[in-house]
Predict the 3D structure of the following.
Amino acid sequence: MLFDTHAHLNAEQFDEDIEQVIERAKEAEVSYIVVVGFDGVTIPKAIELAEAYDFIYAAVGWHPVDAIDMTDEHLQWLEELAAHPKVVALGEMGLDYYWDKSPKDIQQEVFRKQIRLAKKVRLPIIIHNREATQDIVDILREEDAFEVGGIMHCFSGSVETAMQCIEMNFLISLGGPVTFKNAKKPKEVAAEIPMEKLLIETDCPYLAPHPYRGKRNEPSYVSLVAEEIARLKELSYEEVAKITTENAKRLFGIG
Ligand SMILES: [Zn+2]
Ligand SMILES: [Zn+2]
């Protein structure tokens, strides 16, 4: 039993063969998937998938790269969607200083507004971080995000940063990069942090694990992430699958 806590099955890369992809996920014993929507196009598709499949849930938020496009109406829309029975988190949201489409101050404002909304609707948040760790940690602290907690998705930081996030009521989600030979930090994080604080994800169609690196990723490959964590933690695959699934169910309030 596996839980892919971050998948973009709503991406156009899956338009052609979504049913086969979902079939392969089931064969790989992926029992739950959270499909993440992050803009005006991907959010409705995430909801649609969550309504069509029992084992798919949705998260809705506004991506920091597109922060400049978010209006008050969009925020209102997120609030309405938060009441949907299959919406289990807000996000992804956060900061992305790699791309410069949206200025930093606008990204920060949009991030803060979404954290406040999450506290209002009492849903956990899914954090996207690219080259913005310190500002993310500061904002989570200033906005008292620990009240709702959530996930540091596709975490690539140090053990020290992971521990800081855990103290703020966040879980650490590892994806394909933990399987890469040269991924020193994710492997250290997998080895060091407590099992009850770990989640697994694909972030598909991006970041496919070894040996599919560079190819299209899909939820069935989350088993490779679990395998690598099991190896690093010297646990059985079954234990890693079971504990990460329980962690995710508890956070999302499923079951
Ligand atoms: Zn992301
Ligand atoms: Zn994502």
Remarks:
- Residues 90 and 125 are 5 Å apart (CA to CA).
- Strands lie at 2-7, 30-37, 56-60, 87-96, 125-130, 150-152, 170-174, 198-200.
